[in-house]
Amino acid sequence: MKAVAVTREGSGPELIEVPDPTPEAGEALLRTLRVGIDGTDHEVIAGNHGGYPEGDDHQILGHEAVAVVEDANGTGLEEGSLVVPTVRRPSGADGGHFERGEPDMAPDGAYVERGIVGAHGYMSELFTSPPEFLVPVPDSFAEYGFLVEPISNSEKAFEHAFAARSAFDWRPESALVLGNGPLGLLTLAMLETERSPFDRTYCLGRRDRPDPTVDIVDRLGSTYVDSRQTPVDEIPEAHEAVDFVYEATGYAKHAFETVDALAPNGVGALLGIPEDWTFEIDGGRLHRELVLENKALFGSVNSNVGQYEAAKDRLTAFPDWFTDALVTGVYDPDDADAAFETGDDVIKTVVEFDTP
Amino acid sequence: MKAVAVTREGSGPELIEVPDPTPEAGEALLRTLRVGIDGTDHEVIAGNHGGYPEGDDHQILGHEAVAVVEDANGTGLEEGSLVVPTVRRPSGADGGHFERGEPDMAPDGAYVERGIVGAHGYMSELFTSPPEFLVPVPDSFAEYGFLVEPISNSEKAFEHAFAARSAFDWRPESALVLGNGPLGLLTLAMLETERSPFDRTYCLGRRDRPDPTVDIVDRLGSTYVDSRQTPVDEIPEAHEAVDFVYEATGYAKHAFETVDALAPNGVGALLGIPEDWTFEIDGGRLHRELVLENKALFGSVNSNVGQYEAAKDRLTAFPDWFTDALVTGVYDPDDADAAFETGDDVIKTVVEFDTP
């Protein structure tokens, strides 16, 4: 079958031919429809996540997928129905996190991640999986179901943010998304849906208008903040101190400037994964500000099945124009090179292996 | 009446004579029994908190008190019964925090703090208060009831810490208290009580044995960590990565080293209030560590009546030897100077105005 992978010899994503997978007992065989591409894929290609599957000289890419049950193989799944696979698989002692349905809380070393580290991804015509790692989705999800995975990461961040403020009567009004990449825009759309508790949102980027991401920010009814004019720590003065910050830039200074951007009792969710970077901060002021204004910061990675379920509702609630504008390119596996190209006109791309 | 205060002319706490207070309608008159001294009092004396009560040239000290209802004045309080007063009072638009019973979550500027900023404290023979800021305590609290206030601050920090981890099945085992001052030791005792979820605790200080605070750490069954030998970020290697960190040093680097000390999914509570201090951190690594290991940090200040109630239970559960060892001096108001002296033999002192 065709697969898009990185190899030890190659320098980027390549279309390769690999044997069709055979489902083991307890595994279903899935036929891939679409696989989305995000920043993590580019990090895998750059070798930052590393970790080829044991014994292999290639890593099949892709962790945002929607697929059809091709062969249920006794798993109880309905053949022909659609599923979205989760990312993490257990790889050792994990303190029971997988058993408790919380793979996202498993510590480093207790898991592999399909398409990211230590396990093949979904960017191939077929893949196999036990059913507990497959979330059923309706037939209408063939086109955009691959967005369930990234949305679920933000569902988790939202859950943790509200939990962190659940010891008192938190009444948030405003939210700020740091980053206008695909995850930032998806999150902004989530914050602008009907059931969002936030009245006002802001989205930080560093692009000049006209720009397709800024157009989306505008159309969502959010306020675009150009970080070149208004750094994160100046947002309270330029706009307002915000109750919730969602960081999706991976720019480490943003983690600390988030404390300044927050209103009293606010909470910041960090999702970026930066490299080492030493810099100066006024740690005394930040520490004091956290304490005297009851502010909170937390990191969040991955997601669980419950958060995939919430993501399905959220995706359904998005207006069509949003998903259409977000996905700027749909590519055949033969054009995988093009699917991974970045540029000012590219927001989110997807590799399409098949249609239902 | 006698009061212990700082004055604009003076250089430290002084015994002064002020008129007896008269309760207004809706206020009770309280006769002070004991008032504890903590680091905040020393900061008030040093002028770090500042803010004399409007129109006054002195600030009566003290925010950790236990008192007797001297004149209920129609408030419904029982004359002769004991109470512990809370610290914050509304001083303007506060977003409804006081009305909702959450004075501790009111933003800066929405409150004064008795004995700390903008309002007289309890270090006087008599004081007045509306009943909603007085927490009834049993007669047995005459001696150590002044500890309810500091304990309540840690009750709040615990509540917020567990809330911050309530979005998943958190199973903490180990806790680390940064600081072996009175608040650190009180918190350590709380973490070592029967109803604590923590199996193992550590307490960081920078004192040589023999030392009365280290003796308490030992006797509580905790492990003393000398920060001169084992800095906070090396605790995982020397002992173990911990699930909960409680910072009570006000040393700003500890806020950031807490991220290193935490185990995956751990949470750090910051309670210290440092001055500005610029230093270098590996912000990229800290940010990445927060994200990939789902770690959380939050600041916590002050407490609400519910947390005072919890603190009453906690104080009752302390073994007698602990409170006896913690309180190293009981002073007459005439010896207030001595009550504020610090030294290696001093842990917590109290000014005693009266007995029931």
Automatic annotation (TrEMBL), chains A, B:
A GO molecular function held by the record: glucose 1-dehydrogenase (NADP+) activity
Segments for region (Disordered): 1-22, 87-107
Positions of substrate binding: 40, 113, 149, 153, 302
Catalytic activity: D-glucose + NAD(+) = D-glucono-1,5-lactone + NADH + H(+); D-glucose + NADP(+) = D-glucono-1,5-lactone + NADPH + H(+)
Binding site for NADP(+): 180-183, 206-207, 271-273, 300-302
Alcohol dehydrogenase-like N-terminal domain residues: 25-139
Glucose dehydrogenase C-terminal domain: residues covered: 142-353
GO biological process terms, semicolon-separated: non-phosphorylated glucose catabolic process
Protein family membership: Belongs to the zinc-containing alcohol dehydrogenase family. Glucose 1-dehydrogenase subfamily.
Family matches, as PANTHER family: GLUCOSE 1-DEHYDROGENASE, ZINC-TYPE ALCOHOL DEHYDROGENASE-LIKE PROTEIN C1198.01-RELATED
Entry protein name: Glucose 1-dehydrogenase
Organism lineage string: Archaea, Methanobacteriati, Methanobacteriota, Stenosarchaea group, Halobacteria
